[in-house]
Amino acid sequence: MSDISIRLIVGLGNPGPQYEATRHNVGFWLADQVAEDYKTNFAMESSLHGQLAKFKTLNGNVYVLKPTTYMNRSGQAVRAVAQFYKISVEEILVLHDELDIPPGEIKLKKGGGHAGHNGLRDIQAQMGSPEFWRLRIGVGHPRTLGLAQQVADYVLHPPRKEDMSLIEGSLTRGRVSIEALLKGDKNLASRALAAPKNG
User: Fold this and answer.
1) Is the pLDDT of residue 169 over 60?
2) Which residues lie closer than 8 Å to 134 by C-beta, 6 or more apart?
């Protein structure tokens, strides 16, 4: 067991029905699934710039946040919730789409750069530190997938059918990983993310 403690889980995405099914919103999808796993519901918290759900674990309350700002202002909601509930940057787990990972893969890391991701960039700026945890949900890069789309256009469109089933599989493993993280077990959390071997 490690001494990892997660008190705030942040799903990244853009608000509004036109963005619901897009690649950029996979963080919202996983946040919704976590809320479902822990039998809690989101409530609008205007003063905290987001929708917030809460559940109890043996280690205390855990909050799940979906910012209602656009992606590039995600840090505003993260900072507001962290300040209000006195949550440190190391106790935050951010769920987000990752272009550098193919669909079907999902990876856990702590700290690091933002790789041009506007949501991560703003959280880093608002929190004054990159030392939060990230669950990187692979959506692939248009160039790697042989698509002519620009990145900005690509992330604002739904995944292709064949990619969608792969992403759904990675989100299922992400749910298991989050459960392990909430128990403080980073090793189990990492192992849970491994894609099943073919054959």
Assistant:
1) yes
2) 93, 94, 95, 96, 108, 109, 110, 112, 120
State how far the Cα of 114 lies from the Cα of 32, in Å rounded to an integer: 23
Catalytic residues: 24
**85 in a known ligand binding site:** no
Q: 8-193: which CATH architecture?
A: 3-Layer(aba) Sandwich (3.40)
Domain ranges of the chain: 8-193
CA distance 115 to 99: 9
Decide: pTM greater than 0.90.
yes
pLDDT, tens only, 70-97: 999 999 999 999 999 999 999 999 999 9
Strand partners, 53: 64
What span, in angstroms and rounded, lies between the C-alpha atoms of 91 and 172? 22
Residue 118 annotated as part of some ligand binding site? yes
- The token pair at 105 is 């893969």
pLDDT tens, residue by residue, 14-49: 999 999 999 999 999 999 999 999 999 999 999 999
Residue 63 marked ligand-binding? no
